[in-house]
Amino acid sequence: MSDLMDILMPLERRNEGSRLVAYKDTKGNWTIGVGHNLAARGLPWVAGDPSETDWGGYTINEAQEHNLLLADLAESIRDSSGLECWNSLSDRRKAAIVDMCFSMGINKLKTFGVFLAYMDAGRYEAASEDRTHTSGEWQVGVRGDVIRKMILA
Fold first, then answer.
1. 82-100: per-residue pLDDT in tens?
2. Residues 75, 149, 144, CA angle at the centre, nearest 5°?
3. pLDDT digits (tens, 9 = 90+) for 39-73
4. What CA–CA distance (Å, rounded) separates 66 from 153?
5. In terms of DSSP bridges, do strands 30-33 and 36-37 run parallel, antiparallel, or are they unpaired?
6. What does each C-alpha distance from 81 to 1, 14, 46, 76, 130 come to in angstroms?
């Protein structure tokens, strides 16, 4: 798993960016660090219901940011490893799947049955094409291009 983490850590830092002060993401969710959704997941050292916490102005340090990212990626790897296609994938393709899980969550990722079936069948060109034509759910721009290239690699 360390080879996979070696791919994922810089990938997510590039894709998500890093902020040590809580902010609202593009969907209005309180977020901190590298895409850590505070309203949904809170922080391990903060008591109470995370969805009812006012996260405005909350800060973390670089070590906390790093540990949150490790934990979030470990969870996304664990979730993604249950997909049918997982065992047949290279580390780069696994990283593409984990990035998608990290971004949208495993439940949403599982709704992309055609894409996942192509991945399971080793039809990576078709999977990449399906990914680029699924409107509204896939990342666009540089992030989407990077993931597409990882699927095709």
1. 999 999 999 999 999 999 9
2. 65
3. 888 898 888 888 888 899 999 999 999 999 999 99
4. 28
5. antiparallel
6. 11, 23, 29, 8, 21
